[in-house]
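User: C-alpha cells in, sequence out, please.
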C-alpha cells in the first residue's frame, strides 16, 4: 500500500510539473500575441472612415497565385480593396510587394495585371519584387521606396502583425482589412499567425536588414 501511495504521489508531481510547463508555454506564446493585437487594433480602419492625410502609398502585401497566373481568393480580395482605396483617394500610389524569388513563381506579375484590370492606372502601380516576408515588405517600403505614412492592405488576421512591424520600423501606418469571404484553411492560418507574431516581436526588437535591399527608388519618381 505504501509503495502504491508513493507511486500516486510521484505521478501527481509529474502531472503537476507538466501542467506548469504547459501553462508557462501557453503564457510565453499567447501573452506576446495579445500585445501585438491590442497595441494595433486602433489602427485598423474601414472604407467608411476618413482616410489618413497625405499617405505616401497603399501597401498591398502579396500572397499566393495559382500556376496559371490567376490570384488566389485572398490575393484578389487584397487587390480589390486596395484599388477601392486608391479610387477613393486614400493615396496616389499602390505599392505592390510580393515574392518573385523564382522565375516559375511571380506574385507581382499577377498583382500588377489584376490591379489594372480592376481600374488602377499602370503609372500609379509600383512593384516591389523582393517582398519575401511581411517584415521585408515594410522595411523596403521605408528604405527603398521612401515611404513614411502608409495604408496596409491584407486580411485582418495578418494586419495586426504588419502594423506592429510598421510601428517598430518608425512608419506611421494604418490598416484596412480585405476580408471578402470565408477562406479555406483559415483556422490553420490563424494558428500559424500566433507563432508568426511571436517570432516577429524579435524582428521588431532587433530590426535586422531584409534579405534583399538595393538602391532607393522614391515613390514620387516612379
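Assistant: Sequence out:
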Amino acid at each position: 500500500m505504501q509503495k502504491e501511495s508513493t507511486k500516486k504521489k510521484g505521478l501527481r508531481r509529474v502531472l503537476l510539473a507538466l501542467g506548469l510547463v504547459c501553462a508557462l508555454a501557453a503564457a510565453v506564446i499567447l501573452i506576446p500575441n495579445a500585445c501585438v493585437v491590442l497595441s494595433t487594433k486602433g489602427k485598423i480602419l474601414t472604407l467608411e472612415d476618413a482616410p489618413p492625410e497625405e499617405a505616401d502609398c497603399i501597401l498591398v502585401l502579396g500572397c499566393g497565385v495559382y500556376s496559371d497566373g490567376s490570384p488566389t481568393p485572398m490575393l484578389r480580395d487584397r487587390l480589390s480593396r486596395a484599388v477601392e482605396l486608391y479610387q477613393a483617394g486614400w493615396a496616389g500610389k499602390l505599392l505592390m510587394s510580393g515574392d518573385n524569388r523564382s522565375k516559375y513563381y511571380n506574385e507581382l506579375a499577377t498583382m500588377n495585371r489584376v490591379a489594372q484590370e480592376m481600374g488602377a492606372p499602370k503609372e500609379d502601380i509600383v512593384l516591389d519584387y523582393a517582398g519575401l516576408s511581411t517584415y521585408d515588405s515594410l522595411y523596403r517600403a521605408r528604405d527603398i521606396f521612401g515611404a513614411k505614412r502608409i495604408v496596409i492592405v491584407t486580411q485582418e488576421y495578418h494586419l495586426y502583425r504588419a502594423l506592429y512591424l510598421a510601428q517598430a520600423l518608425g512608419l506611421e501606418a494604418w490598416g484596412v482589412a480585405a476580408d471578402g469571404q470565408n477562406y479555406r484553411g483559415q483556422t490553420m492560418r490563424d494558428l500559424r499567425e500566433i507563432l508568426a507574431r511571436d517570432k516577429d516581436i524579435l524582428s521588431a526588437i532587433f530590426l535586422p536588414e531584409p534579405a534583399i535591399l538595393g538602391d532607393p527608388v522614391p515613390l514620387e519618381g516612379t
